[in-house]
């Protein structure tokens, strides 16, 4: 069920700048060792314009000037038996003008050009991207806006399509990730050996987050369409979703929603109603939503 675009509205007034990304405001590149320079050339050969470097965290920033603006390959060789934790994070709260998508799969992260093209096929513009390497983990961030409006993505159906598109691309180029993703079975790759007990995996609670909103935290077994289902449950009890952080971590979805009721934070009674409704549905995914 498509929901109104006004459902998501970030309360953060200032967009994420270079400082938030850990990138220097200066356009002069600091001195790099030969190893660091080699890594940068390897990761961004054929890119658009590379505007800034930060030696502290080895962050590379690239502006998007075409489909080949960001590319990345593995930085180190790992043991073949080791499979890192795949993480896909969609952040609606940190930037008032763009939806931030973060992808991490150890240092195996590759085929980012194809990921960008897949997002463009959804009618989205990848305005810019950053790649951060810390230790053995490579994290890639895309700043996404709608091509038709130039604004951040607000429709939960589209947010779910973005999430599933990125996961599908991850499975395509790293089929070994399916062993740690619930979507491995859903997309017909390899089902994960570990199965989560939904009763044990599901945790839901509401925290205070100022006088005008509350923070709803949900942790449950991941599955396709989960985001849209959660938001439908929330709106069915007349609670507004202001912004969200959607985190897919292996087999588990760890989502946070800033919610309010008639412009105010949820009281204890309404919070309990919301938690009970969500827990009832999430623990019984085969149950018809309209039955409770």
From TrEMBL:
Any Pfam family the entry gives: ACT_ACR9_3rd
Keyword Repeat: yes
Annotated ACT domain residues: 215-292
A molecular function (GO) term: amino acid binding
UniProt keyword list: Repeat
InterPro entries per the UniProt record, alphabetical: ACR1-12, ACT-like_dom_sf, ACT_dom
Entry keyword annotation includes Nucleotide-binding: no
PANTHER family per the UniProt record, alphabetical: ACT DOMAIN-CONTAINING PROTEIN ACR12, ACT DOMAIN-CONTAINING PROTEIN ACR4-RELATED
Protein function: Binds amino acids.
Protein name: ACT domain-containing protein ACR
Organism (species): Theobroma cacao (Cacao)
